[in-house]
Amino acid sequence: MANRQSLIAGNWKLNGTRSSVVKLASEISVGAGSLGVEILVCPVSVHLADALTVVGNSPVHLGAQNCSDAVTGALTGEVSADMLVEFGCEYVIAGHSERRALFHESSEQVAAKCLAVQKAGMTPILCVGETLEQRETGQVETVIASQLDALLDVGGIDAFRQLVIAYEPVWAIGTGKTASPEQAQAVHEMIRERIATQDAEVGDALRILYGGSVKPDNAALLFSQPDIDGGLIGGAALDAESFLAICEAAATTSDSAPIGSPAR
């Protein structure tokens, strides 16, 4: 079994001002220390430069919440992966459930974004997950398999070598509801096995995060599951104390050596 370094990623969503972003990034950078887990913050694009001034010389990595699959063109309002590289980004979230639901991004569009992110030299965090209705009607595996297969179809198994997956049950995002550790582990295991059928080494090394109302009081139980390699954190990532407590929970449940993380 591969030694997968835990990753705790903060998705700040549409929140913050220039001053609050600098304050939050500073507090997280100071507290990051040598926890032994990889820590990532993802502010809105217009705040990337401000965040970079703080995290650029710290253990904390910088990522973006979204990007275009195009390199250039008449695409008003879009930001390319190459542009994000210039601002120090190492990761880009792709296919978050809010993007899929509110902006109608298809799995094919998300797959194209993942490839664009990789081509620019960054690591995509591919988000997958089911709605409550899909879970209650027994469609969890079918839905997630289709989301994974969209990338497999265009990028093959190689697209999963420099990739992080975030499993986010849509019914648990921002609702206060959380999948039980057993429910989350079952889906994480299913994801890993599906990729392992293509390439056992890739499946074993793949980092799979859980995203869905992770908080300091439930983080340790979630992260202690064998196929959960960290978290994609929403609301709790906007408070440095809570976010760092989640990072510490990951550190206490991880005995891993750093693999799969991009070089600084």
Percent of residues in beta strands?
5-15%
Write the CATH architecture name: Alpha-Beta Barrel
The total count of helices amounts to 11
* CATH topology grouping: TIM Barrel
H-E string: EHEHEHEHHEHHEHHEHEH
Write the CATH homologous superfamily.
Aldolase class I
Rounded radius of gyration (Å) = 17 Å
Q: What is the CATH class? A: Alpha Beta
Characterize the biggest β-sheet: 8 strands, parallel
The general outline is globular
Strand-pairing-aware structural class: alpha/beta
Mean pLDDT: 93
Q: What's the number of domains?
A: 1
Low-confidence stretches: 256-264
Number of strands: 8
Helix fraction? 40-55%
Q: What keyword list fits this structure?
A:
264 residues, 8 strands, alpha/beta, eight-stranded parallel sheet
Could you describe the 3D structure shown?
With 264 residues, this protein is of the alpha/beta class. The protein has a single domain, classed as TIM Barrel (Alpha-Beta Barrel). It is 42% helix and 14% strand. It has eleven helices and eight strands. The chain has helices at 18-32, 48-55, 81-86, 97-102, 107-119, 132-136, 140-155, 181-196, 200-205, 216-223, 240-252; strands at 7-11, 38-42, 60-64, 91-94, 123-128, 164-167, 207-210, 230-233. An eight-stranded parallel β-sheet has the order 7-6-5-4-3-2-1-8. Helix 2 links the parallel strand 2 and strand 3 (60-64). Helix 1 runs parallel beside helix 2 (48-55), helix 1 packs parallel to helix 11 and helix 7 (140-155) runs parallel beside helix 8. The longest helix has 16 residues, at 140-155.
